[in-house]
């Protein structure tokens, strides 16, 4: 018999609002304590022993992922300046190689392609120059992440920033692309997203405070010591993050400060990079806005997407010289449409939005005022948006890499549960849609074998909650419960959209159903959908998920003994909550980097990101109502003596967003009541898990093998396929 490790109990009192909570496992927070590391190691050994019978299945899954993936591949080149930029991958190498090749002339807007018998790994594109080989940079490190990557406008310099710990603190370096040698510039402990100003003489970057909040923007002159860098902007309000950017026109630099509910943008003429940034709209609590620069009828305008008295956002324009002056309405508010953003180009504007739970893209000409697409939209102020249309009932579409101000095309990506990720260029002047590349799927993949559809569960309060499903129609029979994975997230207005996944095919080929519960707290159905699943409405996220699970059981799509719940990060909170609320509905629950001790974390302003999170969850430190509400759903604090489903919690030692201690404490508490709970801690990883594609595939294979085993799916995945 394999005996699970038992964490020692060392009671700690937490006292707030006259409530006393005894936490027996808070001591696990100190990851420098040898006893903590020993306990995590023992948990890993126990998990390895308990899952040893899945080793062959894990290896089979890994080989399936690998076998279906074109390991030597080339991304679709993106034109910027005088170059086509792209990334190559090579079979056997964990990471990509960032490259560029010269354009043939100023009118060269069709990206070069490799012929069917060509080998992009062997030769790349004609005239290729390798800018950065992530494999070389990652050598000697257990973890590697690229957080910033930008080439100066004249193409002469590269800045890149690397994290080799998983703690999301990056070191910036600058490379001379003529020589391939790094310059002396080196800036440590930065956040991601650094960039050059249009002159290439300066670079702008952000640093974080002790709570891991990006709070300061800096300007660095290439060639100078980092110690003399200039502080450009400091944000004292602990609810706000800061970031820096440049408009596509390269005419303005921007600094944005934003919380979950409020934003404030500052603008500076790029021709004066050492000048002072000026506020576009002063911050007002609850008002969010984004800024784009456009030229309309020869006039510099700022396009502003905002939610001031427009819950689903609207689009206005203002004079760049007088942003707080008169406004022109371009896209008015629509209760049925959540406007998510716009991109401005020399001759046109693109808009991205959601309608009926699906993403949409529309285009409007600014030179003629007419749209460009096969659908129709409407606006005023001289812009007429036309929507791009697609045939599938479920899909995800969004604009892609479009860095050039005067480009004649719009790059966009499209995918669905059945359609591999596909890249198109849309020619704005003619409406022509050019297929550039579809994600290769090696081996036999026949989309006609699969079905995707949408179901609607009805919540207890009468709200209809969408569920997206995909399965193989030849392996899933109507009325016969199938092994099913139900995925959920439901926080931060983050939407989980239907998209293609090569690894997921290994579940579907074993007769499994994959479903997404689009619960409140996400953004699938607009801003009100999000508002109904946050703060003192957070329980709606949990009950929506449960109602979706019951709906699938009632339809005989699945049954409780064949249903596994899956979620990560804030979705891990969802997993922990439904485990307590409806354990009888699930055979298993997989929780990745799960936020399962939310009250302890949100009560401590010294922890990473805590104060920022008050806009999402409420402030339990100062508000007793919020404290009581969160205490009522905290997964850790509501573990009870009941029959829990099998639970697998996966975490990372260096995660700075959801600390490993939360799932470690949760699993220890679950063990007290006899739950079959496993804890797996990646010792060299961050919030996103391990780095490197092969390592990530092995991590996914571990998770999938557990899901298959718990749901009772056939392990072989050798269902017959048509030749």
From TrEMBL:
Protease keyword on record: yes
Signal peptide: none
Organism: Cryobacterium mannosilyticum
InterPro entries from the UniProt entry: AB_hydrolase_fold, Pept_S9A_N, Peptidase_S9_cat, Peptidase_S9A, Serine_Peptidase_S9A
Protein name per the record: S9 family peptidase
UniProt domain Peptidase S9 prolyl oligopeptidase catalytic: residue ranges: 500-712
Alphabetically ordered keywords of this record: Hydrolase, Protease, Serine protease
Pfam families tied to this protein: Peptidase_S9, Peptidase_S9_N
GO molecular function: serine-type endopeptidase activity
Domain Peptidase S9A N-terminal: from-to ranges: 5-439
Any single GO BP term: proteolysis
Family: Belongs to the peptidase S9A family.
Domain of life: Bacteria
Spans traversing the lipid bilayer: none
